[in-house]
Amino acid sequence: MVNELESEILRLKQEKGAMIFAHHYQIDEVKAIADHVGDSLEMARIAADSEADILVICGVSFMAETAKILSPSKTVLLPNLGAGCPMADMVTADDVRKAKEADPGLKVVCYVNSSAEVKAESDICCTSSNALKVVSNLEAERILFVPDQNLGGYVSKQCPEREIAVWRGFCPTHHRVESLDVARTMAKYPNAYLMVHPECRPEVLDYADFVGSTSQIINRCRTIEAQTIVIGTEVGVISTIRRENPGKEIVLLDDVMVCPNMKKTTLEDVYRVLRDGTNAIEVDENIREKAFGAIDAMLKVR
Ligand code: SF4
What we know:
Blueprint: H1 4-16, E1 18-23, H2 28-33, E2 36-38, H3 40-49, E3 54-58, H4 61-70, E4 75-77, H5 93-102, E5 106-111, H6 116-121, E6 124-126, H7 131-137, E7 142-146, H8 149-158, E8 164-166, H9 172-175, H10 179-188, E9 193-196, H11 202-207, E10 210-211, H12 214-223, E11 228-232, H13 236-244, E12 249-252, H14 267-276, H15 285-299
Parallel strand pairs: 1-2, 1-3, 3-4, 5-6, 5-7, 7-8, 9-10, 9-11, 11-12
The chain binds iron/sulfur cluster.
Iron/sulfur cluster (SF4) binds near residues 60, 172 and 259.
């Protein structure tokens, strides 16, 4: 049942010609009022193609920046300005600039989970779905992959012919799980099919039956026959998968897989930014153009 706050949000959304986007890791109440639930690039692309002039991005700051990079003429609102990403903060534009100055043959691939400034200094972006394809297709003597050591390491292992240096950043939510935690859960569900996100540690990936992005995990759950599935990614995805697969037992790999930043956005925050038009995200035009170039280069990879 729609409560008073939800109906006010829906009313304001219509009145202002806004659209609400929520990342899979958001709380269920926020996902319930969103026009679209998806991963960061998916949200930004659909937002750019939409008719809406105001985009409310329920996620963390780099997601709102990515939406602004693709939609410079639209107003992009981030409901909670305190929602950042510790992994994105583990590399700076200056770090990337210095690495390139030190090695002119270096090309930089940056995971979309990074700041606009870092994207602007990178040659090309990637997502967890297309990282392997992006790296395989890149013409470069040497590659630096930023900021996630686990996704970078996963790609590097599958491209032994490429010279890839990997930045030592990590997502605390995924990196926290160790092989002993996997062993403990799998001992409880010995016949379960294990799917994990490539932001997990390599030893956790080694255990998995399937490694994929959030969307790839959601899609795979729809098609596999296994009745018990253990999922190693942020807890927010679990409710979506359970709802879509009512006959299957869906288990979170470890209870620690919660991103505190993704849980900061509340319905009250969404209501407030819609009502007041506050928390608009701006990206310097010079940085935006360069960051757009890195995203566009990725979108051209087939
Ligand atoms: S789950 Fe990890 S990568 Fe995603 S916002 Fe949280 S800390 Fe950043």
